[in-house]
């Protein structure tokens, strides 16, 4: 294992922010992680666990910590029953490659989650979701290393406390564990989810007559490519904000004032608002301040057009938050982790 000092992180975060890590190490097994974490000289230095770097924003020039890049690889079928296949993936596998592996083997359940940037280990942290499917729908269990005693713990679905872009790893367990592997329960017979968004329309445009998980994956990739900026070309971290929930009364009041408002009723007497719509109505869509901007095709996404600093992007996000609060009285929450 090589421990580097003052290591540049520009290529390790999809926003392309040129921060520097005081210490940086890449670890490719649980044993290596334990070995590193036992070193007395690093015991009291804060740790930042890095996966694909696709859901974070560095706002400091120098990160006074050890950045631990989780490179644990490997995809294995662990067991199967009549209807399911249980597949374990190392946390450091690229998420989309994992989705492609499942599609090639005809394991159904995550085709709607195609092309989400990042690594497998980050998936459960924020319960990634898209086009009507969330990771929790196919989650079996995960293994995580407890940073306090360096013991491995298993978390089942309940213990992960999944919510909308939420899990225990963003709350009580924040910064206390390193997720090392995730096991998924996938289906031998697919249930197709095509009603969300433009999937059906896209399948039609593709001329698909017989549904398959490969076709749905392709449709999702096409939609994402048409709406969302490719981080390899323009720095971004996907949706920067969450879609906020308001109660029914608040929604009714907003609907009277803004009849075109986009909201989805939830089971808990709340309504989820499309934050992209709120931000667009405040005039932010396509706006550029210096080199930081709000994407012109999806207002939920902030972009780095070149040399924006993390601070500039953060300040832009604050201005967006403030104007949504002022116009609609709705408090947006950042989805991206800020360091
Ligand atoms: N909308 C606008 N203006 C915009 C963007 C959206 O009016 O600039 C409206 C759309 O017209 C539509 C509604 O908002 O009526 C929803 O838009 P969309 O289907 O694009 O989805 P979203 O709610 O904006 C969420 C996820 C995305 C995920 C898509 C598709 C969050 C925070 N974001 O976006 O996830 O791909 O649904 O399922 O929940 C991510 O988390 O990084 C991400 C990209």
Write structural notes for this entry.
By secondary structure, this protein is an alpha+beta fold. It has 3 domains: 2-70, Uridine Diphospho-n-acetylenolpyruvylglucosamine Reductase, domain 2; 75-187, 2-Layer Sandwich (Uridine Diphospho-n-acetylenolpyruvylglucosamine Reductase, domain 3); 235-338, Uridine Diphospho-n-acetylenolpyruvylglucosamine Reductase, domain 1. The protein contains 9 helices and 20 strands. The chain has helices at residues 30-37, 95-104, 122-125, 157-160, 199-205, 213-227, 248-257, 275-281, 310-328; strands at 3-8, 20-27, 47-50, 56-57, 62-70, 75-80, 84-90, 129-130, 133-134, 139-146, 152-156, 177-187, 235-239, 245-247, 263-265, 270-273, 288-289, 292-294, 301-304, 337-338. A hairpin with a 2-residue loop joins strand 8 (129-130) and strand 9. Helix 5 crosses helix 6 (213-227). The longest helix is centred in the last third of the chain and has 19 residues, at 310-328. It is globular and about 60 Å long. The two termini are 25 Å apart. The structure holds uridine-diphosphate-2(N-acetylglucosaminyl) butyric acid (EPU). Uridine-diphosphate-2(N-acetylglucosaminyl) butyric acid binds at residues 130-131, 197, 228, 238-239, 242-243, 262, 274, 276-277, 280, 285, 298-300, 335.
């Amino acid at each position: 294992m090589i421990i580097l000092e003052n290591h540049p992180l520009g290529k390790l975060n999809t926003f392309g922010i040129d921060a520097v890590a005081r210490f940086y190490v890449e670890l490719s097994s649980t044993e290596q992680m334990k070995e590193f974490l036992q070193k007395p000289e690093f015991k009291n230095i804060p740790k930042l666990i890095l996966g694909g770097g696709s859901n974070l924003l560095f706002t400091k020039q120098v990160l006074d910590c050890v950045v631990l890049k989780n490179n644990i690889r490997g995809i294995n079928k662990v067991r199967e029953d009549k209807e399911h296949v249980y597949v374990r993936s190392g946390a450091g596998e690229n998420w989309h490659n994992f989705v492609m592996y499942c599609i090639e083997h005809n394991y159904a359940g995550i085709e709607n989650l195609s092309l989400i940037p990042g690594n497998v280990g980050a998936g459960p942290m924020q319960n990634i979701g898209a086009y009507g499917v969330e990771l929790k729908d196919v989650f079996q269990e995960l293994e995580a290393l407890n940073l306090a005693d360096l013991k491995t713990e298993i978390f089942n679905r309940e213990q992960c406390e999944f919510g909308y872009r939420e899990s225990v790893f963003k709350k009580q367990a924040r910064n206390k564990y390193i997720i090392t592997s995730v096991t998924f329960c996938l289906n031998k017979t697919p249930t197709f989810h095509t009603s969300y968004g433009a999937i059906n329309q896209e399948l039609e445009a593709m001329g698909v007559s017989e549904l398959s998980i490969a076709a749905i994956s392709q449709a999702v990739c096409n939609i994402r490519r048409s709406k969302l900026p490719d981080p390899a070309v323009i720095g971004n971290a996907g949706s920067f904000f969450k879609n906020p929930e308001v109660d029914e009364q608040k929604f009714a009041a907003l609907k009277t004032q803004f009849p075109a408002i986009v909201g989805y009723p939830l089971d808990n007497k709340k309504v989820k608002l499309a934050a992209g719509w709120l931000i667009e109505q405040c005039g932010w869509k396509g706006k550029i301040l210096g080199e930081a901007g709000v994407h012109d095709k999806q207002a939920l996404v902030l972009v780095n057009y070149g040399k924006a600093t993390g601070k500039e992007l953060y300040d832009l996000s604050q201005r967006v938050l403030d104007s949504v609060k002022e116009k609609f009285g709705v408090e947006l929450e950042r989805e991206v982790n800020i360091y």
